[in-house]
Amino acid sequence: MLIADKTSIQNQYMRVPQAAAYTGLSISTLNKKRLYGGGPAFSRVGGSRGAIIYAREDLDAWIAARRVGSTAEADALAAQNAAA
User: Fold this and answer.
1) Which of 20, 34, 49, 82 has its CA 20 to 30 A from that of 14?
2) What CATH number should be reported for the domain holding residue 27?
């Protein structure tokens, strides 16, 4: 594998600390969203106790789905997510 290919793959996937920083969430909040639902899609590699990774495109999609145009919309989205 070429170094450029490896770097490209590393830029596509993130571990929990990098994904938390990318989304602006704390690691704890991202972990809770993964456990209870409502967070971005993730993959577990290496078996049932393997590493958790997030694809950049999944994080971008999750962020885009929460885009709002006003504080009122943000409040409504937060209430909708809390009820789910």
Assistant:
1) 82
2) 1.10.10
